[in-house]
Records
---
Amino acid sequence: MSVIEGHGERMTCPEDKAEESNCGSCHDQPRAHRVAFQEKQDGENLWDTFELLQIDLGCESSTDQCTGNPSCCSKNVLRKQRHWEKIVLAKKSKRKHERERRKARRAEEKGAAALQLSKRELKAIAKERLLEAKETGPWLCVDLSMTHHMSQKEISRLAAQIRRLYGSNKKAQEPFWLYLTGCVKSSPIHEACVRMNDGFANYLMDVTPESYLDLFPLEKIVYLTPDAENALEGVDPQKVYVLGGLVDESIQKKLTFQRAQEEQLQTARLPIHEYMVKNINVKNYHSTTLTINQVFDALLTFHETKSWVEALKAAVSPGKGYIFQDITL
Ligand SMILES: C[S@@+](CC[C@H](N)C(=O)[O-])C[C@H]1O[C@@H](n2cnc3c(N)ncnc32)[C@H](O)[C@@H]1O
């Protein structure tokens, strides 16, 4: 009989059951038993498990425990048999668990590969949409010719806003074609964009030192400015919209409005007053001056939804001190 010691008790190999009445007979041939048993396990090397479990595989007689008492011996044999079966079951379930884990991991890897593929496809679709917008419009310029009005800190904030604006456009179903006009190479704003915006050199947009005035016919240009009298009615794909590349909210009042008037350009503001009212719960701060990326989010949303409510929801944060009029909702 092969007796296996583990967890403080000894166990019997099932194959040895027949020999139980003959306790001690295997004592002389432990190795032969072990080899025979291993072969029968059809590749499942349970002995390894026992070694892992730090079970002593020595084959000893249990006559010292049940000397001359066959019922004690058979009870012990049954108990040990159950214990043995438990170990075999545990081993089987561990293997099953590992198989399932491997399967799940393979499926996960496959899924990730598929996701990567669709990411690539999405990128290709986004590129296609952008290039189509380049041909058909709408077009939007960020006028970077006024950065001398700003501090280095404001220039860095503007570079971050350009990154967000570009990010929104890339994700849009109906993007604009973008221009950074008045953007001179190695100027502080150009350097800030290169430094702060990963992959800036590969952005799908035109970066040019030229002015929008040199690129488009005057009648096509609409300068967007918070100080315009006229509210923007819609997004016309035949027009070129210009945003002032400025990060100032109060200091440079009417800067872009005056510039656009000097250049005899059409101007327009977002229709905030047409859809929203001052939130009377906010006492001190009410502003309709947004950042360039917020204005651009409004344009993109309007272009896609044809709804100014949706567009303004996307652009005007509660911090601006404005809420929607009930009738507009
Ligand atoms: C931070 S604002 C600069 C405000 C600055 N005082 C000016 O004179 O334009 C940045 C740009 O976003 C656009 N913008 C901001 N709020 C706007 C609004 N309510 N309607 C239209 N354009 C707006 C304008 O093009 C503006 O130049």
---
Amino acid sequence: MNASTKQSMMAGAAPAPTSPAPSHAPAPPPLDAPAVVEIRNLSTVFGEGADAFTVHKDLDLTVRKGEIVSLVGGSGTGKTVLLRHILGLTRPTTGAVTVLGHPASDLTTEGATSRVGMLFQHGALFSAFNVLDNIGFALKEQGTLPQDVIHDAALVKLQMAGLKPEVATRMPADLSGGMIKRVALARALIMDPPLLLLDEPTAGLDPNGSDEFCELLKELHATLGLTVIMVTHDLDSLFALSTTVAVLAEKRVIVTGTPAEVVHFDHPFIHHFFLGDRGRRAMEALPPELAGFPVKES
Ligand SMILES: Nc1ncnc2c1ncn2[C@@H]1O[C@H](COP(=O)(O)OP(=O)(O)OP(=O)(O)O)[C@@H](O)[C@H]1O
Ligand SMILES: [Mg+2]
């Protein structure tokens, strides 16, 4: 047992996967895979008149079934707002957001959580509820299932997120940062949604915690056949998970492609993001055949 596994177990997390081999991002789905999210000509304007503030303008994005899309962009460029559009929580000023063939705005009225799971930027759990009640919250709100069925479903998701059953009765204040992320993930998956949105899922985790969380996401993506859209500033997670990178700048998605393709795109944000010190370190850790792009000599 290595040190990080031991530490995880002491903290109440299930043992980390035993294979220490670094694994690569999943292969992208076929180009004719159906669209799960289609955003067309999206504009988002907050405020009115002199206070009007445009966040998105003529933004287009298509996400196909089985993709893991990393959405990157500077702070305040509208990444979280874009996820809120996909969830149907923010309405487009103009343009259309379609999720699984329906306008996203329908999601809030008919079973949003059964179609889209969301892990919010600050992973907020309900502090007054224990872990199991947090995970089962959406099922309970639905009001159609008996308590013992909700309990069992939440327990399955708890373990799917790599936590041991004894964590079930703990309160959020008694959890480590990594465990909070796992509980939030279990909660997002309670209704078996085909689409998972993650807002900075590894922020605040140490490198070990972050690697373990990426492995968990990769495993769930493969076993549950999920489509994932993940906002991230974490280049290690980006390279470990993404089939696709979408870059938000100038109020729109300026480029989408594999990580290797996007790195070649000529734009100041991309230079700064991928070719700064952090980016070069993350890229140097990749096998050359996967990186497929030049790493500048320092
Ligand atoms: N409901 C709202 N009303 C007015 N302005 C808003 C609202 N929601 C977000 N904004 C503004 O929209 C802009 C984009 O916000 P958003 O939270 O999407 O940024 P972000 O790209 O996620 O940034 P970060 O990387 O820091 O999380 C910000 O200037 C924010 O203040
Ligand atoms: Mg944000």
